[in-house]
Structure formats: C-alpha cells, structure tokens
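Q&A log
Question type: sequence-to-structure
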Amino acid sequence: MTAHLPVLPHLMIDEAVKNALLEDWGRAGDVTSLATIPAEATASVVIAARKPGVLAGIAFAESAFRLTDDTVEFKLLIKDGSRLERGSEIAQISGPARAILSAERVALNFAGHLSGIATATASFADLIAHTKADIVCTRKTTPGLRAFEKYAVRCGGGSNHRFGLDDAILIKDNHIAVAGGVVQAINAAKAHAGHLVKIEVEVDTLDQLRQALTAGPDVVMLDNMAPEMLREAVAIADGKALLEASGGIELDTVKAVAEAGVDLISSGWITHSAPVLDLGLDIGMS
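Response status: OK
Response body:
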C-alpha cells in the first residue's frame, strides 16, 4: 500500500457531483420522491458493502447528500483505502427523506465506480506484494473522471502513471517510426524537455532496449514481453533505467511478470474495465 492516500480538492468533487445531480434531476427534479414522500418526512440510512472490496470515493457520496440538502447529516464510518467485508457499514446518513432519495443514485454511482477501481487495483497489488514492482494505471480512463479514477488506483495500493500528455514524455512506437529510430526520438525529447520532465520510451525487442539505453531515458516500457524476455531485459538494463512491463497483463500472469524483476507494471484494465463494487443504501423511516 502507498504510505499516504492522495487528497482530492472538495471543489473538484463538488463540481463533478453537481453536474451529475443536474443530469439525474433533469428539468423537474425527482418527481417520484416529490409525488410519494411528504415534505416533512425524515429517514435514516446506511451505506453498506454488498461484496468485499476496497473503499474509494466516499467523499463523492457525502457531497451528493450535502449539495442536495445541507441539513442532511453524514457520518463517515470507514475511510477510503479501507478493506470492506460483505455487510460492512460505510456511512450513516439522516435527514429529509426526499433529499436522501434524490441523492442516492449519484452518491452510489461515484462510490461504487471508484471502489471498483480500488478493488481491482488491490487484486493486482496483493499478488505482487512480495516483489519490488508497483502496479500503475494508464490514460485509459473515463473522459472527465481521470483524476478521480487515478485517486481510486492509489486507494487500492497502486501508483499513478502520467495524468496527461503534458506531464511526462512517453515515446511510443509511432513516435519512433516518425522520428526515425529509438535513439533519434530520445535525443529529440531530451533537447525539448525541461529538466523536471521525465522521458520514457516504449520498446518491444531486446535490441531496441539496448539502443534505447545508449541514449539514457529515465524509464523504458517493455511492451508485450513474456516473463522470460523480461528477465533478460532486467539483466541488460542493469539498473540504468526504470523498467515498466506493459501489455495484456492479467491476474493470472501479473505475479510472473513482477517476479521477472521489473520496477513497474502498467494496466489499463484497472480503470477502463474494473467492475463496479456493489454498494447499497439501506433505509429506515424516522
């Protein structure tokens, strides 16, 4: 696990939740609750886990209830990054019943989605905890939710790759083809980059790795290499650059990849295909 969880600014959370509430309420609001629930009715509810997993994004749930009605009381019982058992109670909410029901789906959508990513990440991280390798995410994220999904990765014990095209240089096969070769691409990147910008290059053969190392990149991405080839790559690099394994790595292969000695293992699946963690809201009238 990471030593410290990241912190998402409340302004970012509130903006995303506000947009989601507006999308859900449409032009007339929650007509079902308005039609069936008396204005004075109150309720007490619990958000609970329906399945085991890792919690992430509970602040989005709090925001949904608060923005719907600031008289709603939200008591957090478990923090992000915590392991959940089936039935674990995560938060207690009480207040106007209409507001609670109107905010329910947006609250659970965010928390379930982000907890699913944290849970998927943890499933990988647990398998390689005995190695030096870290699981890292990619830019294969839901448009508009990247910062939140990358936060969830860290809640699950993973680390973040670059956040966008602007915070690091990653030279991939198409860049290499246009630039005229691995060394040419790295040298051009070094001439362009500031001293704080990391340079990573993707290779898919050991010969390309040897060429890349002569130009001194910070990180080399080893694309679609089997564990045996990864071990050779680790020996060739001999600590001259960080090594990242990438490409179709799954739960049944990640352990062997990590044991090959790489520093990083990147996975797009943990953000773009992680199943939602089933969280539910149990309600009782007060």
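Response note: The two ends are 40 Å apart (CA to CA).
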